[in-house]
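Trying the structure run again after the queue cleared.
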Amino acid sequence: MTSAVQKLPTGFGRLWTAQTISSLGDGVSHAALPLIALTLTRDPMALAVVTAAGTLPWLLFGVLGGALVDRWDRRRTMWVADAARAVLLAIPAAAAALDVLSIPLLAAVAFLLGLGQLFFDTAATAYLPDLLRRDPALLERANSRLRGAQTAMSGFAGPPAGSALLALGRAVPLLADAVSFLLSALLVRTLPAVPRPVPEARESLLRQARAGAGYVFRDRVLLGLALRPAVGNVAFLAVETVLALFAHDRLGIDTYGFGLLLTAEATGGLLGAGIASFLGRRLGTGTALTCTAAIEGLAILGLAAAPNPYVAGPALAVCGAGMGATMVLAPSLRQAIVPAHLMGRVASTSRMLAMCAAPIGAFLGGWLATTYDIRTPLYAAAVLLLTMTAVTASMTSNRRVEAALRAAAAAGRRDHAASKDPAQESAPDLL
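Done. Tokens:
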């Protein structure tokens, strides 16, 4: 039986359910935290501090976190991270109930939640290929379902739920998010154990982190996969920074219409995630990635030139579809070709590059709009995306991708043979 018709294992259903529940909680807090902060201050810089605090862990500890995940048991890392976030959210909930909540406390909570997300997401990324035996087709199907659920919960259901719960009290959405993390932790604890990676020779954490980052930059396929979200984040944040103003001034869209515009993008993202596996099978993963990247650039170009909302909405939906497909195909390929003992570090390095690029894009968008015109950031983003597509097309071509998959399969067979050696000991549990 080929992987194209194999069923996903039962354990994946539990992982999917856990991440779906957690994504719903993320959507609730994503809407509620800024609104809670708004009840405490009207200072834009103070509000920005709360927002930025959640991204700082990726910038400060991204590669080191990946190195730790490669040392620790990944299933345990996931449930401990979720349980810790559940307990953490009880603190601002109690502070809100006692009317002692403050901006510094919210910023600290946002930072620690981001740290928990770093460990959970990195461990989940590393755990999934072991659960699915690094089968490329199964990984694409699994990531498609995970991405679709994440978009639906955090993009559609979570934010309105968070706003509605906030009407019941500032503590209510925080407690709801805490419950979601607790349920996720309980489900993750029931996941099946997977073989531990073959332990490396003992090295310092910094040296291991550097080795993981170096592995990304030396491998052309992995470097191409890392450049896409990094350059893409510069482009997309440049657009996002001015999108509300562009919609209001150029398209004549009110607040309600702007919400519909974002919904169109999320709808496209769901569609893209759903057809990603089909595109990978028909075009080959490398060609599919090049096509989706080109579609994103052309869609942003169409958005920049849009004369009205009826053109802008479909343009954003097409862009969302390209992004949704890319965010299924690229992680699936990475999980299929990276050795198990490096998976955490490679995943966190790629994520860190993308996170570091985001503030650059935000600044670029604001500067271009101030210096030139509100459409200029959109045109610049389109040019950046299309240039990135041309540069990375050869790095992730079908030929290179197939060669990487063959090499990974051969290495996997060697590792499997070595694991039958009774002299091999499992790595000690360091968490």
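Confidence is low (pLDDT under 50) at residues 1-5, 422-431. Worth checking whether this holds up in the mutant runs.
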